[in-house]
Amino acid sequence: MGKRVAIIGAGVSGLASIRCCLEEGLEPTCFERSSDVGGLWKFSDHAEEGRASIYQSVFTNSSKEMMCFPDFPYPDDYPNYMHHSKLQEYIQTFAQKKNLLRYIKFETLVSSIKKCPSFIVTGQWDIVIEKDGNQESIIFDAVMICSGHHVYPNLPTNSFPGLENFQGNYFHSRDYKGPDAFKGKRVLVIGLGNSGSDIAVELSRLAAQVMISTRSGSWVMSRVWDDGYPWDMVYVTRFASFLRNVFPPLISDWLYVKKMNTWFKHENYGLMPLNGPLRKEPVFNDELPSRILCGALSIKPSVKLFTETSAMFEDGTMFEAIDSIIFATGYNYAYPFLDDSIIKSRNNEITLFKGIFPPHMEKPTLAVIGLVQSLGAAIPTADLQARWAAKVFADSCILPTMKEMMDDIDEKMGKKLKCLFFSFLRFGQSQTLQTDYITYMDELGSFIGAKPNIPWLMLTDPQLALEVYFGPCSPYQFRLMGPGKWDGARNAILTQWDRTVKPTRSRVVSETQRQHPFFNLFKMLSFSVLLLAILLVFY
Ligand SMILES: Cc1cc2nc3c(=O)[nH]c(=O)nc-3n(C[C@H](O)[C@H](O)[C@H](O)COP(=O)(O)OP(=O)(O)OC[C@H]3O[C@@H](n4cnc5c(N)ncnc54)[C@H](O)[C@@H]3O)c2cc1C
Ligand SMILES: *[C@@H]1O[C@H](CO)[C@@H](O)[C@H](O)[C@H]1NC(C)=O
């Protein structure tokens, strides 16, 4: 009999965890408080207690080839950026096809997780669950916490003097579902993260006036990147990551800022981040600059003071007659079922080895999956984290000593801590240096023997090696070799661009209808004529 593992939550992290436990011969039981899989992506038209809540118009900001389960590509007709309902369909299909549903206990809340008295010897946990008002306590050999971190709103009302006098209504973006109620209204959005800008852009089409107040500004990126390809298919490559790391910071910062400003000059739109080159997590929004150009939306600094009806900003300007204020100020993470000291062993800071394992455990039988966020997609990250955790539980991987883990946390996370664990800062945006997604994934991959060996590929399969190195660092790469490899990975990598262009090439122009060939011929002709003319002149 394999060890029994409790998994809290059946979002994408929980599903990845169930699957990885099965791969290691462990016995998973997943507890999910709601009635379906998907977590955050299961939309409901009112915010539910203890569960993430999204608005009706959420689309993904990673593209489909970069955010799939690594052995489960999206159907090729799926759009690159998906509406939440489309992603939810995919997640449900994954759970069905991989036979994961029978390991999930729905409508079951985990209310407490405690070490058993015998923990030092057994590493076991006592888990209390609640279903239909009944409590039950069950012993497990290990625990994976997959309960999400977009759940507990950060509503910094105390840092806004005068808010208590404000007569209109205010609420957290968690309770925002759609724009209908704001027709003709004057709305202030606080916070320039992904949610804040999405909401403001959406409101700007109906509302009378919309402003975003931001303390520190943000880089705004388009989903549509060079040559119209999805941003991450071009940006998240091993080669680009190598280039970013090989230049001295001064140069790579300069290049970064230059790149970020090619679409539009952030300074002129009031968006320029305070610490310009700091790799703050960018905002993805294709319409924000255009709404600002159209005057439907404007960007303001922090609010200094609220009165009954208006806001005064730090620069002394006012926004008058405000009807509603929306706080898009992010989330605080919380694990109400767990003693806080397990995750934060020091100064109220998160101390987790590689963002997963608490280092101070006598036995490594607890893992947090899906908390670390780098500039990459959640699904492949969770899959790799869960694979490693399952191997640690199954004793086929061994963690370093407590001291080594703490040193690693101090060294690597020390200054980057805030960037790994985004969100807990005031106003909802991390002040981050981005953690490089590929570096993090490779590190996890190397623990379980799944990091792609590119020199070896170069010798044995050069075509694949080139696509792995210069092409997008898609999730399939981490199931290409080593334990847990997927036989379809090679083919999935070599066909990823086909699946990318398929859904948008919905009107195919045949070779003869294109103007290229003739156009090129024309260019070549005129070039030869020019050359000839120059020769003639000089003789
Ligand atoms: C607006 C928005 C857009 C995003 N867009 C993207 C994107 O494009 N790409 C991307 O990669 N990421 C995106 N993310 C990040 C997102 O966090 C991840 O995509 C992913 O959904 C996280 O999954 P999870 O399983 O870790 O957590 P969740 O999806 O939050 O799932 C947690 C589950 O645990 C359950 N649960 C919690 N507590 C308990 C308990 N005590 N007992 C039982 N069950 C419990 C909950 O009911 C829930 O089902 C976005 C986030 C937001 C807010
Ligand atoms: C996508 O948006 C979500 C929600 O704001 C955010 O947590 C995540 O970091 C974003 N992804 C990227 C790659 O920036």
TrEMBL record:
Tell me the membrane topology, using the record's own terms: Single-pass membrane protein
- Gene Ontology cellular component list: endoplasmic reticulum membrane
> Please, which domain of life does this record's source organism belong to?
Eukaryota
Under Enzyme Commission nomenclature, its number is: 1.-.-.-
**Which reactions fall under this protein's catalytic activity?**
N,N-dimethylaniline + NADPH + O2 + H(+) = N,N-dimethylaniline N-oxide + NADP(+) + H2O
Q: State the similarity comment.
A: Belongs to the FMO family.
* Protein name (database record): Flavin-containing monooxygenase
